[in-house]
Amino acid sequence: MISTYPERQYAVRCIRLGAAGYLNKSADADEMVAAVRKAAAGGIYVTAATAEALAAAVGRGGAATEALSHREHQVFRLLTTGHSVSEIGARLGLAPNTVSTYRARILEKTGTKNDVELALYAERLAQGGTRP
């Protein structure tokens, strides 16, 4: 998988969901070729950064965000970037009440109490930190 997002944010999640590897689009051409060859041969390509993220996830039992469903993860990313419940609903084609239900589940799964704590939690994860 080639993504615009840094490996520390999504690599572990994508590999757990079946991706044969994860590269940021800024990877050099040689690395991309090596990744495609490894995946085509049935292997899983991981960079040093992805290997560290995988080791950290195993060591701490995984971040709470890994327990989120795909839709919960979408809502999580939008909440932590400052979008309101109604904006998220409009963007994802969901009723605001549905988004609020996802928000409540996300807060419970991450052990946070409000959107500010959730945003701080997301920032710690993005920096390679652990659970609050």
TrEMBL record:
Residues 1-40 form the Response regulatory domain. This is Regulatory LuxR family protein. It comes from Pseudacidovorax intermedius. GO terms for biological process: phosphorelay signal transduction system; regulation of DNA-templated transcription. It comes from the Bacteria. Gene3D superfamilies: 3.40.50.2300, Winged helix-like DNA-binding domain superfamily/Winged helix DNA-binding domain (1.10.10.10). SUPFAM superfamilies: C-terminal effector domain of the bipartite response regulators (SSF46894), CheY-like (SSF52172). Transmembrane segments: none annotated. Pfam families: GerE. Keywords: DNA-binding. The keyword DNA-binding applies. Residues 61-126 form the HTH luxR-type domain. GO terms for molecular function: DNA binding.
